[in-house]
Inverse folding.
């Protein structure tokens, strides 16, 4: 029920059997329904968890994104935290804060809508079904997506999972539902990939902090990665020709299409073009450093005068 303070009070029923239940593999959602998550969503959830109040076990928030026309594909692009309080008897959700934040978000991103909610923790608890029922009403006719993140890093993984709910039982109650796992993948742009790789490198180093790579280091790393990919493709083709692994027609057509778009350039001519481009890049770096030095000298001369 809801009182006059615009806070949603969800009391735990006397008997609840399916509030935190998940569907067995035989009842899993068809692969037609899937979700994709932007990496910024994960960082926002972790930031919310780190800033939680003392004694608070988990945090929740609203997921924002876009849906396909038939509603089978959901792309989660953003989120924002929602204050809530859980006790042994009930859970309170600040609806006024939730709606105010959504109205402000619509002014910046009018195309994004509410697609579900998130919660930290590896497992569903007794209040998950009650909170999910509230968000199900917010998304109207489409199924609301519930995203969980294991902030305890069990098995050294975040353990991100997504669910939708399905009603169970004869009576229609908020807690009479079962959570069904759905496929989830991470969708990022090329510009975001550099940041994710930088974070991965920082995790692998002993000291922790890391710095951005220079243009030359990025170029060298890109060339090394391309060389490794070419070696893997060459090993695959040699194995198919030798008969050690079966041929895959789909992979063969993809390789043929990839090779056909590569222009035929003589090795000596390609090396000449590459060195010319490299010299141009070095010249730009040299001019930029010279300009930076001249500006620094001019600034110091102004102070002396």
């Amino acid at each position: 029920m809801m009182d006059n303070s615009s806070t949603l009070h969800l009391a735990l029923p006397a008997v609840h059997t399916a509030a935190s239940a998940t569907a067995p593999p035989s009842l899993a959602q068809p692969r037609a329904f899937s979700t994709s998550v932007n990496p910024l969503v994960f960082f926002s959830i972790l930031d919310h968890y780190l800033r939680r109040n003392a004694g608070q076990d988990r945090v929740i928030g609203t997921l924002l994104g876009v849906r396909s026309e038939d509603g089978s594909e959901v792309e989660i692009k953003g989120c924002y935290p929602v204050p809530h309080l859980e006790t042994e008897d009930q859970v309170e959700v600040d609806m006024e804060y939730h709606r105010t934040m959504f109205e402000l978000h619509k002014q910046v991103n009018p195309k994004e809508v509410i697609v579900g909610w998130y919660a930290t923790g590896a497992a569903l608890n007794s209040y998950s079904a009650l909170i999910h029922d509230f968000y199900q009403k917010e998304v109207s006719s489409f199924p609301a997506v519930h995203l969980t993140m294991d902030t305890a890093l069990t098995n050294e993984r975040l353990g991100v999972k997504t669910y939708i709910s399905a009603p169970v039982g004869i009576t229609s109650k908020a807690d009479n539902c079962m959570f069904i796992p759905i496929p989830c993948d991470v969708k990022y742009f090329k510009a975001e990939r550099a940041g994710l790789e930088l974070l991965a490198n920082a995790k692998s180093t002993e000291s922790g902090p890391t710095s951005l790579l220079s243009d030359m280091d990025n170029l060298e790393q890109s060339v090394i990665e391309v060389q490794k990919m070419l070696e893997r493709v060459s090993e695959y083709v040699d194995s198919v020709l030798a008969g050690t692994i079966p041929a895959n027609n789909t992979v063969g057509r993809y390789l043929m299409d990839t090779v056909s778009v590569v222009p035929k350039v003589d090795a000596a001519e390609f090396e000449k073009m590459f060195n010319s481009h490299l010299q141009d890049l070095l010249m730009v770096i040299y001019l930029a450093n010279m300009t930076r030095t001249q500006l620094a000298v001019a600034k110091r001369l102004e102070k002396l005068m």
User: Anything to note?
Assistant: Confidence is low (pLDDT under 50) at residues 1-5, 13-20, 24-31. DSSP finds seven helices and eleven strands in the chain.
